[in-house]
Each structure stands twice: as structure tokens, then as C-alpha cells.
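TL;DR need C-alpha cells for one chain.
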Amino acid sequence: MEEPLRGFGKLDNALLCTHCGFCLPVCPTYRAENVEIQSPRGRVSTILAFRNGTLTPEEVGAVLSYCMACRACHSACPAGVRVGKLVVMARSLAVVSKPWTTRLFHWITDHEGRSRPVARLVHHYQRSPVRTILRKTLGVMGQAPWHRLDGMIPEFRGAFRQGTSPVPDAAQPIRAALLCGCMARMFYPNVALATSALLTHLGVRLSLLEGFGCCGAPHRDAGNRKKFLKQARKVLDRFRPLEGRIDVVVCDTAACRVTVLSYARALAGDPEYAALAQRFVERVVDFSSLVLRQCSDPASFFVKNISQRVVFMDHCQTRHGSGIMDQPRQLLALAMADCVELPRSDQCCGAGGDTMLSHPEHGGRIRADRIKAIEECGAQMVTGTNSGCLLNMEAGLRSARSSVAVCHLAEILWESHVCHNDGL
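>> reply
TL;DR here they are.
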């Protein structure tokens, strides 16, 4: 067992662990379960046992399936152990079983031809009176599986406000390809509309990067290298004809940005895609950073039109892996009069990629602490840039009968700009 694992190059990083315990208070699964095996150092022990042949692929897959891959342990470890990455490496050789619901969801989102009609069906269901009728009838009948499915579908946002302000006449507008996340396309159609409208009104000439389904984020975190690379190649195939016409690639979902940034390394040995992946990655920019770069006069572009107290919810891998924290908060302060920091803001919300689907009870216990933190700071609105996290939190808040609103940062910024220019 040892030699195949060594082939991944960095598994020996686990040997640096001193079991000091600095990782324990930041690990969402350990905080929720208080079980050693569900701590980063417990996972290190599991990986080393797997490496030495003590544990079978099935046994290690069962243990590691609960990890959120949030990378909080990376920031906390004084020895430089990268448990999140080690988990992904080990998962690629272990047997990680997924429930049929999770497999069905990925079967839909991985393929554009399947996800597009399902997204239309979801959007119709969100607006339809059928949803209210089903809630009343099936609620009385106690249909638990249906309740869980309905609970994950967010409420209808309302029609998107296009705005009337003119597009700036930029002499040399930046050219960008917009990659829209499958979770946003499926459940939050206004996110892509708000992102597109905002960037266009900031002088960005947009092209849509579409037709690929999913970027491969859940497969990457699950260690399913074959499916991850398949989705990565599909994205690059759609990028190829646009390459000569764009300067940057921007994602409306934080998890997608983290994922596509890994394409160059993942495909470094592929003679057909290696160079293309490298050129693609070099063009990827952060959404918040691009807006700040393009907005030369924020006072004339935004207005503090929303009086609700708002908190920004970080995407874990963006915070702990990329270190991007200040830019979205700077933008939020331009549009909101009352911005507060979320207690324990470095903690995971419990989404964990597809963990909220494969282990809903486990993710729900982690999410409960985030809901408690929202209550502690008196927030009336939660925002972020990762649609999966927003979907998870909206479901949790609705289940807790909370009135706290959830929306994407692009929606807030666009509404601020529209109100400013419409004189509202």
C-alpha cells in the first residue's frame, strides 16, 4: 500500500505531524463531534495507517468521508502539515461511497444537457403555487425525504432588476470570460445576471464560458481524479475558442475559482491540455478584486441603500487557501451601512462541497454553530461569494424559522448601483 500512495508526491507531509493539538479548535468536524478520529491529527493517523497497510481502502474511505476539506487546519498547524490536501490524496486511493442522491445530483450537474432543463424545472418550482400546496399536503403526511429536498431549494428571489444606467464608454475595456457555477445556475439564476450586469457597467466586455456542466469541484475534493479531470477538460474545451478574445477569466462562485486554479497542476502531464491549462489559469482573477480594480470612483457607483445589518461569510478554501478576505469586505462596506464581522468567521458553515448532501446530519451539526454565530451578532442578512455555502445557510436558517436573508455579494452590489442611478 505504501508505494502507490508515495506516487502522489506529498503524502510524506503527514510525517511532520507532532499531534500538538493546535488544529483541534479550528476543525469543524472535531468541534461538532468531539471525536479524535474526526480531528485533523486523527486523520493524519488514519492516513499513515493506510500508508502502512494497516487500514483497508474501505476503512479509510469511511473515516475520511466526513472531512470538509476546509483547510482551516492548514492555517493553524505550526509544523506545516497540510491535512486537507493529504485527505484528498488519500481519498483518491480509498473507497469513498456516496449515497445515490449525491451521485444523481452530480450526474445532472456534470452535463450541460441535463442540468439546463433541471435548472428550468427548479426555477419553475420556486415560483409555482404547487410548492405551497405540496408543503401543506405532504407536510401533513410527514414525508421526511421530500421535506429535506424541498428544504434545500431556496425561495424565489423575484424578477431581476436590469437597471437603466448607461454602460461606460471605455476606450480599451477589459475582456473577460464569465464562468458561472453550476450551483448558482441551478438555484440562484439572479447571481449570474447580477455579476454580468455589474461587470458590464464597470466597463468589462463579457463573454460567457458555458456548455461544460460542472467545473469539477466536488470530484476534486472527493479525490475522484478521473471525473475531476474529465470536467476540467470540458471547461478548457469551451475556453479554447475564446482564448484569443479575452484578458481574464472570472467566476461567480468562489469554489469554482479555487478549483479552476488547480487545472494547470492537475493537467501538467497531459500533452494536449497542459499548455492550455497553464494559459487558462494565468487569466483567472478574483471577482471582488476585479470589481475593485474597475471601480475607480466608488462614491459615484454605489450607494449605501440597504440598512440591514450584514455579515460576510467566507468560503473556507478561499480564506485559508488563497488568503482572500479583505476585498469582499471592502466592497460590502461600499453598499451596506451596517457591516459586522461574524463570530468565529474562520469556521466552516457545514456545506463542505457535497458533504451537505452525503452527510446531512453531520453537516447540520456544523451549520448549527454558524446559525448561532449569526444570532450572536444580530445579523439580518448573510452574504458571500460561494453559492453552495449560501444554499446551505439559507436551508438552515429557514429550518430554524429565522428571518435572516441570504444573498450573493454580486446581488447586493448590483442593487446598490441600480438604486444609486435610479435615485432610490
